[in-house]
Amino acid sequence: MLSLDQNFLVIIFPLFFLIFFLFIFGVMRFVNMRNQKKNFIKKIQQEGYDEYEGAYEDDSEILLSQSGSKNPLTYFFSFLGQIFIGQRAGNSGVVGKRFLRGGLRQKNIETAFWGAKIFFPFLFLGGFIILRMTVYKAVSTPYTAAIIVLGSLLAFYLPDIWLKQITDKRKERLLKALPDALDLLVICVEAGMGLDSALKRVGDELNLSYPDLSGELYLLNLEMRAGKQRRDALKNFAMRTGLAEIKSLVTLLIQTDKFGTSVATALKVFSDSFRTQRFQRAEEKAAKLPVSILIPLILFIFPALFVVILGPAAINIYQHLLK
């Protein structure tokens, strides 16, 4: 009869063989794809497409983020995603919107995302197996199986948690930048500038203080300069941000352009209403503050106060009882 440790080793050795085989296969696939990419680039250059090099030199700062990441870790995850998922990793529109709202515009970011979701469970599994064989030998087989399953699930959803965090932080930065952008937009429109020129000027002015919103406005102007209708470009702008406030602003601009009303008056009214909503949100947070500090107050402050106030009395009572 085999013991539990022997049974565990019987399961582990085939798993290590599978991981080693996948690693060798991945290296071979990586070398093959890299050679194919080099040959494809040489073929394009020989056919004369390199004459367009530098056509977008003025827009290089934005277009570099779309040309693919040079980060080795992202490239490694992208390679894993191409091996295990293939072309399906880059065809999901829902995931693409999530990455756009997180400010990630690299071409290979979706495949890197799926590669990370595949890599982290294997990383956790390998690390836990090493610890199980060296340090935690006394852990029973049922607990080992439960830890492997739960840890692998957590590692699988770890990229989703990271993506949600950076998306929420970016939305906060965009929401913080929106009042100043509205004020600048109202000033530019009232000064006689067109809406397209005003959006470009606001994006340039916010480049240092609010780079996220400045980048989105820059992409908006690039789409309009490329020939896309203003309505479609504004809808894409709202889709990339994912904020209800920007969606309302885009709806306002589309309706104003459709019915021919005054853009300056509409923007001024929207700016005033948005600032009123901002004050209301601040008042709401201030009203929730007493409830928010109740739990830290009970857990950390009240026990210390009880020890300081009732401690000397308890010591005196104890000394009198001993007498």
Structure summary:
This protein has 323 residues and is mainly alpha-helical. The chain has two domains: 4-39 and 63-156, no CATH class; 172-290, Up-down Bundle (Receptor-associated Protein).
Describe the model.
With 323 residues, this protein is mainly α. Helix content is 80%, strand content 0%.
Could you list some keywords that capture this structure?
323 residues, mainly alpha, Receptor-associated Protein, 2 domains, 13 helices, 80% helix
Whole-number average pLDDT?
A: 77
Number of strands: 0
Please give the domain count.
2
Query: Gap between N and C termini, in Å?
Result: 67 Å
Largest pleated sheet: none
Principal-axis shape equals: flat
- Give the % helix: over 70%
- Unreliable stretches: 47-69
The number of helices is: 13
Residues in β-strands, percent: under 5%
| Cα-based radius of gyration, to the nearest Å | 29 Å
Global structural class: mainly alpha
Q: Could you state the order of secondary-structure elements as H and E? A: HHHHHHHHHHHHH
